[in-house]
Amino acid sequence: MGSENDGLDAAEDIRVALGRVSSEHPEEFFNIANDLRALGCDAAAVPFYEKAIAAGVVEAVYNLALLHHECGDVDRARQGFVTASEHGDAKGAFMAAQIFEACGEHQAAALHYARALELPETPVRLARVLRLLGMSADADRIIDESVATSWESAVEYALRETTPTYEGLEILDRHWTAGEHQVAVTMALLLGEAERTDDAEALLLVAAEQGDVHALTNLGSLWCDNGDLEAARRAWHRAAERGDEVAANLLERHGYT
């Protein structure tokens, strides 16, 4: 079985060979690199990505950065994601922002998140960083402008003290109807506040049946509040088996462990 150095030597041999190759279709280097990754040959994929980048295949910048990230080379990954971000790649911008945020470099994180706003998962993360920078008004504006396109923004907006319950429910219901069932727990909370407990239970049941472990845990809590402790225990037990720590803590708190 070959060593890691053998793999690096082979990659260098490929790099040298590719230096002698020209192609009218540089995207083929990109495709070969992706195929090599799919086969688990990460080291061999690197020179093909490099050749594709040199030939102007912008997507290769992100993919090579992702390879470095998955291999634990954070510095090269960050450099690659920043380059992808500067070329207008939203996914690269998002990944660069996440790395900067994890390092506490919030100004840089905000810059790159702002370049990735077309991704629905971005607004709440940009808002979080803006608040850390003392820009709460801008953070609120980002959330306000994305409630229709991001279920996470919709959840944050619905939970604001200044948002009327009926308005929060209307916004969340649009995401629920669109199949974004991650809003179930928050929606059930607001239904409970509106004294629509039966609707909350029905909603959580549907979400739990579709695999939402958090909905299952909250369903157990609702049953517990209603006095059905055995049903609550079963729900928490199922959720805990699937790795939900809140459910495990509830089982322990109620003496079911």
UniProtKB/TrEMBL annotation:
Protein name: Tetratricopeptide repeat protein
Organism: Flavimobilis soli
